[in-house]
Each structure stands twice: as C-alpha cells, then as structure tokens.
Amino acid sequence: MSFDLAARLAERRAADLYRQRPLLGSPQGPLVEVDGRQLLAFCSNDYLGLANHPQVVEAWRTGAKRWGVGGGASHLVIGHSTPHHELEEALADFTGRPRALLFSTGYMANLGAVTALVGKGDTVLEDRLNHASLLDAGLLSGARFSRYLHNDPASLATRLAKAEGNTLVVCDGVFSMDGDVADLRGVCAEARRHDAWVMVDDAHGFGTLGATGGGVVEQLGLGMDDVPVLVGTLGKAFGTAGAFVAGSEELIDTLVQFARPYIYTTSQPPALACATLKSLELLRSEHWRREHLAALINRFREGAASIGLQLMASDTAIQPILIGDSARAMALSQALRERGILVTAIRPPTVAAGTARLRVTLSAAHELAQVDRLLDALAQCWAQLPAESF
Ligand code: PMP
User: Fold this and answer.
1) 214: which of 118, 210, 246, 351 fits an S-S bond (Cβ 3.0–4.6 Å)?
2) Which residues are noted in the entry as pyridoxal 5'-phosphate-binding (predicted)?
C-alpha cells in the first residue's frame, strides 16, 4: 500500500484547480516583480500600504538591534518581552477594551479562541462563508458545530433554538472572498436573545473600516456586550504579521490559561511587535490612507460596472469579479497578466463550485491612474474572453 499522491495531484490539475505560488522578487507594493517580470498587482492584503513603510521598517530594524531577531521561547516560559506587552496595551487602547492578547498568526488566534471557549457539550455556530481558520477551529473544538446560511440571522436563529451548553456564534467581520460586511447587528440581536456569545474575526475590517479604523464593530457601533470576543490580524492593514484577541480581563486570562495555539508556540519576534507598534501609530494618525482607499474603491466599482462586469455586494477593499467557471477565471487572469497586471483567480474549493472569481484587492498604496489601467485592461480582456467554458 502507498499513498497515491500523483493521482490526487493529476485529478486536481484535470479539474483546473491546481494551485500555484507566484514567486515574488520584490517587496509588497502596487508594482511587484513576479517570476522575473514587473507587474501591477491587485492581490495583496496590504490595504493601507504600510507593509514596507520606511518608518515601520526602521522600527523593525531598531527593534532587532535592541531585542534580537527571535522570540526565544513561548510566552509562558520566557518569550513574553516588553515590546509584546506594549503592543498588547496599545491594541487594547485602540479597540477600547480592557485587554488584548497577541498571537503569532490569525489562524492561531482563531483556533486558540474558539477551542479555549467551547468544547464537548457546547455549541459553535458559524456563518457558512467564514474563513477556513474559523471553520477548522469549530471542528477541532469538539463542540456541536453547525453552519448557518451566509449573512442570514434568521438561519442563525433556527440553529440557536436547538443549541446546547455554552454557545458561541462565530462570524467574519468582512468576508474574505466576497468582501461583504457581516450583518452583525442581526447576528448580535439573535445571540443576545439566546444568551450566546459572539466572536468576530475582523481580519479585513481593522484599519480599513470605521471612523478611526476600528473595523466593523466601530462602523456598526457595537460594544463589548455585543461582541465579547474580537479578533484582528496584523498581516493585512497593519502591514506586518500576527494577530490579537481583544476583550475583558477574564477572557484574556482564560486564553492565556487554555488556548493551546497561544501556549505551545514560540512568541513572535519582539522586533516585529516594535514594527507593529509603529504601523498602529500610522494607522491611527494617517486618516488619508482610509480616505484614499475609499476613493479607489468607488472608482473601481463605477468603472467595472460600466464595463458590464459582475461585482459582488462589497464596498470594502475586496472587490471580486464573479466569473463562475474556473477555466474562464483562469483565462481572464492570464490575459491580464499578459498585459502586465496581476489579479489572482480564486477557484473551488476556496469558493463554492461555479463561483470562480477574480479577487481584486485595492490598497491605499495604489494611485487612481493604476486603477484606471486595471479597468482599461479589464475592458479589453473581457471583450475578448470566450463566452463559454472551454
Ligand atoms: N481570518 C481571515 C478572515 C482571513 O482572511 C485570514 C487570512 N487570510 C486569517 C484569519 C488568517 O490570518 P493570518 O494570515 O494572520 O494567519
């Protein structure tokens, strides 16, 4: 007996679903070098253009000189350094919550929070389009796990009625593949009615949404009573890496005691926390980044609609163009690439069958003229794209 990996891979290739990793030969930015060629890119999550901001890079450099390059150990052993602590305090202040806890990645923050809060005998309910890390966390928790219809509080309500034990409702703030914002008012109202807790992963909303970049909870005016467990990631608008959970003293103490992906891993390099402290400062003071991003989003949506492209109900930096067929999505992505533009095609199983799309993401680092270049190229490529699947 052996593992027939070759057959598995061949099957994936035959279904036009084979995943590739473009090789980046330059820093993040609107213009990148990929596989040796310069391209105008619309696929990064560096929404505010902070990933290689000179002040953030300098903070990292100074941090590395002072603290070295490694975390050294897990937080509970001897890996919890002053920069980690300062960043946690700054994130607590930013989110207006008593405390925040730093994780090495968003995937681990989600896994850690869900599995620390619910287990056997409990219930976890998730939007069916939640990020993979949240769905994996629900499965791993051992709690009864059910997915409700996307952005549908009524569908959530029918599941809440049957829930047992402690019940956690888990929801993305902005859905990563559609770009739409969660109906959190509806979700929180249902949760309150059934005495359930709400956890929101606002990986794509922090920094980009809300009057001060406080994300979807700020935009919707929701507090800690509505959303006791708030997750943010640092690899997107913050431009660095890592993640945090913000909430009450008791919540954070519980995670420190019980969240295995927090306890059993090396802390992130303290110098990285120094860099994130700087990017948080820029994110809080340079409002023009959010305003410029909003102008780019408007320009893109208006232009794409006039070409006849099918957009989704998103007013965030994630602007997918729905194509449907995987081969057509790949063909459009390839045609753009031949014109020097990089936009990734997203196919099943990342999205549902028949909903392949080009996932355009915009960043404050883009100029309006670059969005116009994308629109021109899209108009030409779209006109030449064969109508049928091939
Ligand atoms: N949550 C959401 C909604 C995401 O889109 C992602 C990453 N794409 C994550 C969590 C994971 O974050 P990280 O990349 O820091 O692991």
Assistant:
1) 210
2) 106-107, 176, 204, 233
